[in-house]
TrEMBL record:
Component of the origin recognition complex (ORC) that binds origins of replication. DNA-binding is ATP-dependent. ORC is required to assemble the pre-replication complex necessary to initiate DNA replication. Component of the origin recognition complex (ORC). One of its GO terms (biological process) is DNA replication. One of its GO terms (molecular function) is DNA replication origin binding. It is found in: Nucleus. The keyword Nucleus applies. Residues 50-210 form the Origin recognition complex subunit 2 RecA-like domain. This is Origin recognition complex subunit 2. It comes from Branchiostoma floridae (Florida lancelet). InterPro entries: ORC2, RecA-like_ORC2, WHD_ORC2. The lineage of its organism: Eukaryota, Metazoa, Chordata, Cephalochordata, Leptocardii. Transmembrane segments: none annotated. Residues 266-324 form the Origin recognition complex subunit 2 winged-helix domain. Belongs to the ORC2 family. Keywords: DNA replication, Nucleus.
Amino acid sequence: MVEEYFHAHGGARPGPTSDRTLSRLNIPRMDQARLQSALQHAPAAHIQHLQQLYQEHRCHFHKWMLQLSNGFNLLLYGLGSKRVLIDQFRSTILRDTVQMVVNGYFPSITVKHILNSITEEVLEHTGSFRSVQDQLTFIKDTFEETGEELFLFIHNIDGPMLRGEKVQTVLCQLAQVGGVRIIATIDHINAPLIWDQNKSSRFNWLWYDVTSYEPYVEETSYENSLMVQQSGVLALSSLVHVLRSLTPNARGVFHLLALYQLEHKDDSSYIGMSFHDLYQRCREKFLVHSHLTLRAQLTEFKDHKLIRTKKGSDGVENLLIPLDGAMLAEYMENPMS
């Protein structure tokens, strides 16, 4: 009956479409820099009410600390960015503790980056691991032996790159490590569907509504918008975001590759830096200790689309950063801006 109705009233021809598109607007689109400047100078509204809201949230800080100390993990939800509130919690109650911040909204963040940051920067381990499970076992055993505590902050644990089942399985195993305390945020309306009953119990979440009504400026800084004129500024911003999520040694390797490419920017026949030359320079700077370490790092760069590889006529593998000289030079002037 329903099918007959739509068949009778539908017709074979599609409905008319409008030609009113964004490209026909007389208002020129802003570039990313002008958009950010306009947002920063936008007048704030309801300041008094927002301050009162923050004060109510800050009253929970000592309670949060007590609950974290008793083996619970915190999951913060609600409308608005939670970065300011979390930074206040970190700088006051947790100012003398070991902390690590993960930005789950990064377009190329992976669970491997999180584990590598813990083992290399927190536990100061220089070796490699055969698998993620081996790395998790090492983290678990080390924290149990040393009795240290790590407060792991994950902005947007429901981010596109972290919401997969395999990633969440690793994170809930990490949540069960003695000494690791997780404070995470979610913003997607369907975020609770990420976890089944088993994962939820392993995370041992305590849920807190921390609605702030703050704009998601940092969380959406890498997003493409139809209202924004796309330019190299956005590409450079994305590059900086990705590099911030890497280890210091990884950034050092990228820095050497970028310097070499800038030195040959006027060479029209330049096809990239050979793997052997990069390895020698990295060894001189103590950035890697073996070919395998550098290979693993380059694989990570490829996953982030930071580099391209191409074999020359002699069969030598050459590495190239897919950015023009001007943009690469701008990055080298102020790498982490």
